[in-house]
Design brief:
Length: about 800
């Protein structure tokens, strides 16, 4: 061929590759024909590609294709041009998560290999990650399979630590074959042989530190385009198979508390969400749940029960539920009973306390609210702040186990409080003897149960001064061994719905007299009664309609409260409303929502997920009614016909039991109260284009909802006890605070602040350091109301406004 023909052929091939891709049939056919040309003609084509690349007149994507063409057309030829450029491109390739398989970047890798130059582990990692995601392209999968070293991808701390341990090479190679949802009998057999060869204790000691490293920041960051999600906080998909295999291997090792602890932590780490991606790696989480399900013993069962209250990712939660149901069926118990029996004592010898001795030194562990606190005494009996040096030196392993125990207790306390809070709608009842064993006198659960109000055969009681006591302070019969209450007396959690206001107020005063801080709102629990407006609308409530919520925060809250929801994407799709199924009542509650706005990148994330939602009605249906659905772009909901079933009307709200209505409305009030853009102090400008300014103002300073009214009633009692009581008064919707520089009004619903003169807005972001803001607000009758804590913290801060040091606050205080 003459030079003109070579140039024409080269330009046509480049144009075709640019217009299509390397995988287009016509391109593949043409490349195949070119491979049959004599070597000298192919080399001339390569030189033509190189010459065009050197001119630098093309865009970067075209220049990449030119580099790839030099490698593809020049396959097998010596002395290919652009070696430095290909090396630079490979270096860049090692800093990305993956490449589009249609760009055929593996050709550059192959050319580097053919030239006798070693490939960097980072480049091999990119090729492998690309192959994992290239479901439609087996060519790249086969190409990636050529690389057996390094055994794992570099870039993750746990993987690099694993490869540094020579003992684990065979284990890692076997772990990489864990590509199914569950291990096969053949896989397990090989795994058992490897574990036995190394020794179970050795395997556990080697693998548990690796699991502790999972989820740590990458050892080197990856480059990403502006529109791409943050892959640095995900799991390497190639390594994830090996991680799943290592978890399966741990299930073959005899049960140990450290193993159970590590598997539970891995579940939570793997399900931590990354913006634009979702959970980091559900497969790893599912493998850890499967390993716990295969592990015998109380500790594994307890961890599964704890995860049942913590996991919100639906696929993993189904596995946790299935594992607990299987254990319950094997023991002939209900799911609720297995959760109760699964709670270990955690070494506590009495309710909320335990003592540990170390050659004269001693540690006292006491549960205070949601915290487990260690108090130390040295050999001389003197109280010291930390573990004595002799304990750290001579009992390092026991000390490590004790510190881990403290963390386990605190995790379990949180999970058990959430489980107890769900019992109102679960309609759970206990026989008195069973209840005392599993709740009141349980070493761990007792610390929660003794701070709650219960009914025993209809008599309301709470624990104080060593006994269950009534409102009048009299001990319940059966509270002491000599007294008699039948073992089958019925016990239930007390709920304020249906109670006389005088009784509810009396219990609140009782808790204050006995300085009882409840693990969640019970005596102070909001009660949502049917309103006249809801009697008029009849089948739906607009009480929490027309709010603007942050979608991701709403989604997390909904999942934590047992609701099912689907993130709304700005695409042509449909979705059901947020729903909560109530099987004990035969009902399904729905909260109708829709995506807000349609401007990509302003109203959505980079991946197209709506940032905010508009809220609408709350409705109730029979639990087996066909689901409703609506376009994710918004619009009316309509019932989907399933299997030809007719549409079902929503239930009249008057037919919904009072307790169910109140608890569902309380959930929805929580969603609005926490996720509304109206309680964000940084949104005073109204958000994008100011279009939420009116909503922000009306919500942030408007009429109080039920939870805020409860907060107001409580503050009227608490404010007189504050150290700054002479500067604070509760008036209407606000807590008024008199400082030296200004007077302030803190809204009891949102926590937003107005200051004199002229009700200027004062922005204080919770968590900022203002000098006096960390002051202890003192006794609170319940845990969990973050807004109440924020309001009290702001009041204590602003009452001493001359002591504030945070410049973001002081600059506003100087403004007139």
């Amino acid at each position: 061929m003459d030079d003109t023909k070579v140039k024409v052929m080269a330009d046509r091939l480049v144009r075709r590759v640019v217009d299509c891709s390397f995988h287009h049939p016509a391109v593949r056919q043409r490349l195949g024909q070119i491979q049959e040309l004599p070597p000298e003609e192919r080399f001339r084509l390569v030189e033509a590609f190189a010459e065009r690349h050197r001119r630098g007149s093309d865009t970067e994507p075209v220049r990449l294709k030119l580099l790839t063409l030099t490698a593809l057309v020049g396959r097998g030829l010596d002395g290919l041009p652009l070696a430095a450029e290909r090396a630079a491109q490979l270096d860049a390739l090692g800093r990305v998560h993956s490449f589009w398989y249609g760009n055929r970047c593996e050709a550059l890798v192959e050319a580097e290999e053919a030239a006798g130059r070693a490939l960097s582990p980072a480049v091999i990692a990119t090729v492998r990650r690309t192959a994992v995601g290239a479901y439609a392209d087996q060519e790249i999968v086969r190409f990636a399979a050529r690389f057996t070293e390094p055994v794992l991808n570099v870039g993750e701390a746990w993987a690099e630590a694993a490869m540094a341990d020579e003992r684990l090479r065979e284990l890692l190679a076997h772990a990489l074959t864990a590509r199914a949802a569950k291990p096969s009998a053949t896989w397990d057999k090989r795994g058992r042989a490897l574990v036995e060869g190394l020794g179970a204790d050795t395997v556990r000691a080697a693998l548990l530190p690796l699991l502790a490293l999972v989820g740590r920041p990458r050892t080197f960051a990856l480059d990403r385009a502006e529109y791409e999600p943050d892959v640095d906080h995900t799991f390497d998909p190639y390594n994830a198979n090996a991680l799943r295999g290592l978890v399966w291997l741990l299930a073959l090792v005899p049960a140990h508390p450290d193993t159970v602890r590590a598997l539970g932590a891995l579940v939570e780490t793997s399900l931590r969400k990354v913006a634009g991606i979702g959970p980091r790696n559900p497969k790893a989480a599912n493998a850890a749940v499967g390993a716990l399900a295969r592990t015998d013993g109380e500790a594994a069962l307890a961890e599964l029960a704890r995860l049942g209250t913590r996991v919100t990712y639906r696929g993993t939660l189904k596995l946790v539920d299935a594992a607990l149901q299987e254990r319950a069926a094997a023991l002939g118990l209900s799911r609720e009973e297995i959760e109760e029996l699964a709670v270990p004592a955690y070494g506590l010898t009495q309710v909320g306390t335990a003592a540990f001795r170390f050659d004269g030194a001693a540690a006292q562990l006491d549960v205070h609210g949601t915290r487990a606190v260690l108090a130390w005494r040295n050999a001389a009996g003197k109280q010291v702040k930390t573990a004595p040096a002799t304990v750290r030196r001579d009992h390092a392993e026991e000390l490590r186990a004790l510190k881990a125990l403290v963390k386990d207790i605190e995790k379990s306390l949180s999970a058990q409080a959430e489980r107890l809070d769900r019992q109102f709608l679960a309609r759970r009842r206990w026989a008195y003897g069973q209840w005392r064993e599993r709740y009141l006198d349980h070493p761990l659960v007792g610390t929660l149960a003794r701070r709650l109000i219960w009914t025993v055969d209809g008599t309301a009681v709470c624990f104080a001064d060593g006994a269950l006591r009534t409102l009048a302070g009299a001990p319940l019969a059966g509270a002491a061994p000599a007294e008699d209450v039948t073992e089958d007396a019925t016990v239930e959690l007390w709920h304020p719905v249906g109670r006389e206001p005088a009784e509810v107020l009396a219990w609140r005063e009782w808790l204050e007299r006995h300085a009882v801080t409840q693990p969640f709102k019970q005596a102070h629990r909001e009660v949502y009664l049917l309103t006249d407006a809801e009697r008029t609308t009849r089948t739906y409530s607009n009480r929490f309609a027309a709010h603007v919520l942050r979608q991701h925060q709403f989604n997390s809250l909904a999942a934590a409260r047992g609701w099912h929801n689907k993130l709304r994407l700005c695409v042509d799709d449909s979705a059901p409303p947020a729903t909560r199924e109530l099987p004990q009542w035969g009902l399904r509650a729905e909260y109708w929502i829709e995506g807000e706005g349609h401007e990509y990148g302003i109203d959505t994330t980079e991946s197209g997920t709506y940032l905010r939602l508009h809220t609408d009605q709350v409705r109730f249906y029979p639990i087996d009614a066909p689901p409703n659905g609506a376009s994710t772009y918004g619009g009316g909901y309509a019932m989907w016909r399933v299997d030809g079933r007719p549409a079902v009307d929503p239930l009249p709200l008057t037919e919904v039991p009072e307790l169910v209505l109140s608890e569902v409305m309380r959930d929805v009030d929580l969603f609005v109260g926490v996720a509304s853009v109206g309680n964000d102090p940084t949104w005073s400008d109204g958000g994008p284009e100011g279009r939420f300014r009116d909503y922000w103002t009306s919500y942030g300073f408007g009429e109080l909802g039920a939870s805020a009214e409860t907060r107001r009633a409580l503050l009227e009692r608490l404010v007189p006890r504050l150290a700054v009581a002479d500067r604070c008064t509760v008036e209407g919707r606000f807590l008024h605070v008199r400082g030296e520089l200004h007077t302030y009004k803190i809204h009891l619903g949102s926590g937003n602040i107005l200051m004199s003169p002229n009700d200027q807005y004062l922005c204080i972001v919770p968590g900022g350091s203002g000098g006096a803001g960390a002051a202890d607000p003192g006794y609170l009758p319940f845990e969990g109301d973050r807004t109440l804590a924020v309001i009290l913290s702001k009041a204590l801060l602003l009452a001493k406004d001359t002591e504030i040091t945070d410049p973001t606050i002081t600059s506003q205080l100087r403004r007139r």
